[in-house]
Amino acid sequence: MKLRDLVYGLYARRVEGRLDHAQVPKHIGVILDGNRRWARAAGGTTEQGHMAGASKIQELLGWCNETDVEVVTLWLLSTDNLDRPEAELAPLLGIIEGAVSDLAADGRWRVHHVGNRDLLPSRTQTVLKEAERDTEHIDGILVNVAVGYGGRQEIADAVRSLLLDHSTKGTSFEELAEIVDIDLISEHLYTRGQPDPDLVIRTSGEQRLSGFMLWQSAHSEYYFCEVFWPAFRKVDFLRALRDYAARHRRYGN
Q1: Catalytic residue IDs
Q2: Is residue 144 a known part of a binding site?
Q3: What pLDDT, in 10s, does the model give residues 82-108?
Q4: Which Gene Ontology CC terms are recorded (predicted)?
């Protein structure tokens, strides 16, 4: 074992030992950013970067499992990403499909898709549906896979769903205007029935949400990590939890 690895392991155990599990966030959202830049820095291809990023997901969920996290939302593909050239998009979708299938096959996670499924190719839609079906009975961490996801798209879809739902009930526009509130809109989000994220982590050094969970993250804490996603380590994860636990959450301020 290299000295650097030994020191890292000791430090990670020290951070973990001081972590108060009562202060661990129950829902963590993760913006998995930096795959392409990591690959470029390593002299690899974009596809290799995405593959390395996909392989990191199971590690993250293992760390979450050890620290009592209950819900994890992983942003794998934005609606903006769907405009990428086919030569780049097709391999990326294949990697995402493989990652989702691996999550379902693991047997520990309950997979749920968040995003506009109609925007995705039929094969990707099938993989997402099968993963949800095959894991719906599992009593483990709920893993939201955000594929074809955009925060504005989600809110637009929620409003559309709300209008269609009440049109079938014969609700007039005047009646609907009287009852529309935050809770009613929340019932039509992709994450309906789930707690909002307590903590949102973004890797790669970028300090913006880029539309991630716009509605749900109104009171979330944010943690921006300099490291690219494929290089994200357990100690980086533990630092995020430690930072979260040290904050005093003041809702509405």
Answers
A1: 33, 81
A2: no
A3: 999 999 999 999 999 999 999 999 999
A4: plasma membrane
